[in-house]
Amino acid sequence: MIKFVNVSKVYPNGAVALENINLEIASGEFVTIIGPSGAGKTTLTKLVLAEEEPTEGTVLFENIDINALTRGQTTKLRRRVGTIFQEFRLLGSKTAYENIAFAMEAAGKSNEEIISDVPHVLQLVDLQDRMYHFPNQLSGGEKQRLAIARAIINQPEVLIADEPTGNLDEANTKEVIHILKKINDLGTTVILTTHDPILIHAVGTRLVTIQKGRVTDDEHRKIKEAR
Amino acid sequence: MFWVRLQRVLKSGWINFRRNGLVTYAAILVTTITLAMATSIFLFQGVLRHAITEVQDKVDIAVYFTTTAPEEQILELQDTLQKIPEVAYVEYNSADQQVLAFRDRHAGDYLTLQALEELGDNPFGGSIQIKAKDSTQYEAIARVIEGDNDTARQNAPIIERINYSQNKIVIDRLNSLIHNVRTIGAGVTFVLALISVVIVFTTVRLTIYIAKEEIGIMRLVGASPAYVRAPFIVGGLLYGLFAFVIMTAIFLPLTYFLNAQAGTLIGFDLYGYYLSNFLVIGGSVLGIGLGLGALSSYLAVRQYLNV
Fold it and tell me: With an 8 Å Cβ cutoff, are A72 and B224 in contact?
């Protein structure tokens, strides 16, 4: 579903974020990308969202070069990808309800769908009582659950969770992982990045290790090679 | 779907406008000052036009005829002059009217009136006063009367004097003054307008700079550039609309109270001018407010959409 072919990314200041990455993620997989801070995990997710362009190589989404897409096509691609960020990236001027409604409006959903689905998804992440609260009135865990609700509301094919538990305590971390697993069980491809070793064991799926911008280990690849 | 999207954009623009609190107040305040400046420019131009017209009205050319000049010939010249496009009007005063006016002017001056009686015949000839549409055209009119042409040659024997030559220096100075005032007025208008545009544009840019992170997030959750931009443009339009309402609420009473002073100083009906030209001034200023707000928002958002 997603393919990185000889991808390198060098930022304008000369910092090498990724170096010759070759990685393939199949539909329905739960891939955990691990590595220390600054290893290039976030850059990898930004490349999938076309938020960054690779310096070399290509990133393919269903065999389509993401960076060859027009702005309109990129917008449509992003509607197929849900995203959760460590720093939540919620719309601070909108309530919890409006944050989710905005994602639905952007995807062209009808008013009826919005009125019916938003309360439902907020209930799923246990935020039904925080519907009309602004992000700055929510705790860290609540913010992240809201971000998850926004990411899944349009039933994306891929869910990218970039360090989603970085700002959460243990209880909230477990809850977030539990939700991500459930989303994956429903058929959504999940790409999770983390540097938290506790989380790695908790997830227990395909692990891709990145260090200094290079893939140094891929459990999936090992399994394939062993076969 | 178009109407649903339009409704969402309008609602979102209005909600952002309401929730942005201090930022909204600051943007409205700056836009109000700008629109006040624009209205002042319009009113200033009205005052300037009035003042120039007043001064121009005080200038004319008078042609004095000899006492023997036949009235038919004077009337013929009057007719010729009236046909010149640059001439606003020509007024003929006959010799009899001149003597009557003289008697009126010196009604209490017994000696002068007695001297007039002793002369026996009417010592005054007829005269015509010529008013040009523009003070710069007096020279051309004077050439028709005293220059080297058929009309001038034909009328030379009956003309005693023309006061254009005497007034020429004053008229030339006045024309130069009017030209300078107009040039300076246009320059001041341009500079003030430019400053206003820059101030509003910078303020709106700042309000949108604060939202630049949200703009990026909106793009990442799949909103099209147009859908992200539209509520900000609505916000810009609302800044212009509210600023216009506030500015009008200030200027209507302000011009009313200043009317007495403007009347005393330069004989200008400021309030009347503002009211009678309200559609033009108000419409232009509203257009400036809406246009500036929307255009500033459009341009300011554009640079943050490339996410």
Answer: yes
